[in-house]
Structure to design on (134 residues):
């Protein structure tokens, strides 16, 4: 599965801890990330990550393009809901595309925890349901 990992600055420590905790599961998949998040995950959690631009420079949009092309299967995006972001429209667009394309998206640690465990148990029947409806 192709999995996108993204975190706003105040959530970077959380995503590093998450990546370390679930290293054994994440390492079985193809990981993608926005620039700074990806650099830190690669360096600090020792995972192979394909990096896009930093979020404010278009990274969210690049991940959005992968979703639009059906090339991204899961998004883990630790948003900071308490800090204004200069690229807020890009963030909204990315989350909207997840809904358009039925891509599971976790926007906080609690949901990411549930989602990654479901991934490990192969609890992803929604994919079959979607395929049947195409
Ligand atoms: O801003 C971001 C997502 O909206 C994240 O970008 P970075 O990973 O480059 O910090």
């Amino acid at each position: 599965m192709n999995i996108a990992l993204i975190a706003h600055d105040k959530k970077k420590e959380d995503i590093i801890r998450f990546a370390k905790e679930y290293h054994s599961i994440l390492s079985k998949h193809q990981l993608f990330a926005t620039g700074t998040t990806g650099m830190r995950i690669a360096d600090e959690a020792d995972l192979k990550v394909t990096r896009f631009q930093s979020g404010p420079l278009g990274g969210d949009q690049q991940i959005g393009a992968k979703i639009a092309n059906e090339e991204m299967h899961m998004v883990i995006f630790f948003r900071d809901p308490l800090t204004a972001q200069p690229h807020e429209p890009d963030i909204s667009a990315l989350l909207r595309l997840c809904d358009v394309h039925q891509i599971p998206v976790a926007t906080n640690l609690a949901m990411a925890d549930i989602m990654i465990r479901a991934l490990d148990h192969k609890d992803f029947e929604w994919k079959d349901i979607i395929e049947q409806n195409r």
Q: What stands out?
A: Strands lie at 2-7, 30-33, 49-51, 74-78, 105-106. Residues 76 and 106 are 5 Å apart (CA to CA). The two ends are 20 Å apart (CA to CA).
